[in-house]
Amino acid sequence: MELKKFLSIHILCVLIFVGFLYYVTIFIFLDDLLSLQSSTGKFHSLFFTFVASFCVFSFFVCVLKDPGGVPSSYLPDVEYHEASDQESKRCGLLKKKCDKCSEYKPPRTHHCRICRRCILRMDHHCAWINNCVGHRNYKAFITLIFYGTIAAIYSSVILVSNALHKDWNFDGVMPLKLFYIATGVVVIGLSVTLGTLLGWHIYLTIRNMTTIEYYEGTRAAWLASKSGLNYHHPYDVGAYKNISLVLGPNMLKWLCPTAVSHIKDGLSFPTLREYS
């Protein structure tokens, strides 16, 4: 069952940490700063609850959604136009076979040694969701780090604002100071980490790359430059089109992790040549 994926120490740590962050942000820092009984306090608590809820929802989608495997019936589409080309095309087919699975691999597919299977448009394996990030759950992963970044930054602002307005001139303040400092270091560190990760995947989305393809492309660009050539990622069809292929054509649904009706079978992808 897919629910067995939650039997992971990483996932339990994430859920415990999210619960802790939600509690201290709403019932300690926000309540102390604005009071949850005030209209402003209620508004901020509702906003943070909304962001945290979508973050958790995206997390569940990432964990439970199959990133996409290669169908057992898949065969690469190869046409033999000339007999003299048969040997070179046969070598090309062998390169498309997975060394681990011994099955044919569609374009942009890579083998995950942890999942022990080939993943369509694989980006990476993430221990924190106990799943691969691939063709079918990449959008959910982006929304997860987006909402997580917003929640972490918001919590950091509330914590710092509360600390600056708090009266520290009373007995027994040292344990409270240590609590604020420790929580601040963790939350601000999380904001920086998630913000950096979000920026990285925004860049990849604009270029229509995966993390694996980025490093492969770096090497390909280096080899091309040695030959006096220019390398261009074949699946980069323009910024807006690239974003639409990942998040969908409707901008109103870009931040909904389950709005994935635009996702195709993952066996083929539009290339720059088709748009030129």
Account of the protein in words:
- With 276 residues, this protein is mainly alpha-helical.
- The chain has eight helices and four strands; from the N terminus they run H-H-H-E-E-E-E-H-H-H-H-H.
- The protein has helices at residues 9-34, 39-64, 86-95, 138-165, 173-207, 211-226, 239-247, 272-275, and strands at residues 110-112, 117-119, 124-126, 131-133.
- The strands form two sheets. A two-stranded antiparallel sheet has the order 1-2.
- Helix 1 (9-34) packs antiparallel against helix 2, helix 1 (9-34) packs parallel to helix 4 (138-165) and helix 2 packs antiparallel against helix 4 (138-165).
- The chain is elongated.
- The protein starts with 8 loop residues before the first helix and ends with a helix.
- Residues 80-94 have low confidence and may be disordered.
- One of its GO terms (cellular component) is endomembrane system.
- Keywords: Acyltransferase, Membrane, Transferase, Transmembrane, Transmembrane helix.
- Residues 95-216 form the Palmitoyltransferase DHHC domain.
- The chain crosses the membrane at residues 7-30, 42-64, 140-159, 179-200.
- Its EC number is 2.3.1.225.
